Amino acid sequence: MSRYRSSCRTSVVLALSLGLLAGAAGAQGTTNVQLILDASGSMLGKLPDGQTRMASAKATLTQFLTGLKADSSLNVGMRIYGGGLKAGAQCEDSVLVTPMKGFDRAALQGQVTAATPKGATPIVYSLMQAANDFPKDTSRKVIVLVTDGEESCGGKLNDAAALFKKIGIEVDIRIIGIDLNEKARKSFEGVGTFENTRSGAELGAALSRATATAQTGTYAVSGPKMAGAGSQIEVRWTGPNNPGDYVTVVEKGAPIGKYTTYFHTRDGNPGKLTVPLTPGEYELRYSSEKASPNPTLASAPITLTPPTYGLSAPKTAGAGSQIEVRWTGPNNPGDYVTVVEKGAPIGKYTTYFHTGDGNPGKLTVPLTPGEYELRYSSEKASPNPTLAAIPITLTAPQYGLTAPATAKPGSSIQVKWTGPNNPGDYVTVVRKGAPVGEYTTYFYTRDGNPGTLKMPAQPGSYELRYSSEKASPNPTLSSVGIEVR
Questions:
Q1: How far apart are CA 90 and CA 388, in angstroms?
Q2: Regarding predicted confidence, which is higher, 170 or 300?
Q3: Nearest 5°: CA angle at 77, between 71 and 83?
Q4: Model-level pTM?
Q5: CB neighbours (10 Å) of residue 432?
Q6: How many CB atoms sit inside 10 A of residue 395's CB?
Q7: What is the tens place of the pLDDT at every residue in 375-404?
Q8: pLDDT tens sequence across 441-454
Q9: Which residues have a Cβ under 8 Å from the Cβ of 87 and sit 6 or more positions away?
Q10: Among candidates 143, 113, 100, which has minimal Cα distance to 39?
Q11: Using an 8 Å Cβ cutoff, are 282 and 301 in contact?
């Protein structure tokens, strides 16, 4: 079953690339594509899926050539190195077996079928020869190199790049590695676009990505090479901006079609992308919704580093008071600081402020005294993770009211109060025994001490209450009786 799915995946992605190649013909001018096939002796080695490297390359190229439609604006040629086509000249054994003049499917397929692994790996020599194969005009030029090893003839890849520059031609080099080791992979760093594969399915998908842009324009994504986990980054992209095109970030080597956070290319260039909270090696990918699984049309590596988190605040504070909290962190979108009971489940929160609101931030703590925690958390995962925490003890504040024992109906009296003067604290007058949370006329403690309070018009027994808006129903924190007569 797994082999069948891999085959289907490759076919779907190939179909997309072939459709793009054929469908956009003529719209972008002439495109010249040179396929360079490694026929060195090491291609007889086997991939983890059991196929020899050469068999896998031949099968994939055959599938590609079979589906590709001829077009007057598309020229496809092939160069083979290491196949013994130049006897006695291993480090110059590189031949343009099919020129880039139109698309001769039969000739190309015949060369693929006949290729026999024999010799060395003259990659640089082949690239330098390819530089002279292209016409000196404004056509789009693409090299797709399929290889299973590094240069074995002493050539330096930078020399090939320098030759392209000297000749004055711009070539889009796409290198597809077949089960390369770490040393070989590093040898291609900085030269064109590189992708390593370890199976026939991966090779087919990589070939699709390398050739899908030959007619529709270059795809590319670029962002910072490193960023803090959970941060928001800017990503620039190059591509046709087709409906359904998007940029996402995934773990390095994630399956084709996987995505996490993303933005559509139609949203602008550069786009903003919030990367995952977990540090590690990731990829930025330009993908399209027009096939399933969504193909990767361009990618760039990015390393997510662990950010530093921290909190600083008073060790004790009055219950219900407002405190200042300083924080250290990446200030990512959705980052916030909250206060919860000690040992509360991860993701729980009460009052909070977003780190984007400033540093320090202001936080009103709960009304109930006890042991609590201040937590730096993020909304970017569920449950919201605790990224830093410090303890805080909330002490019981002293509340009290002082006022005349009697007052005339409708008169105004002065009321002295004792309390923390927290935001939302107020003094009101209600009938004696009224439900908790009931209020009539009132003044906020922030308005001054003493405060002025107007009495009810109806005579009777009443209470003055010190209350707070920070809980529902508003609690009675202190009270004294008063007779209105």
A1: 61
A2: 300
A3: 150
A4: 0.45
A5: 12
A6: 13
A7: 999 998 889 999 999 999 999 888 999 999
A8: 999 999 999 999 99
A9: none
A10: 113
A11: yes
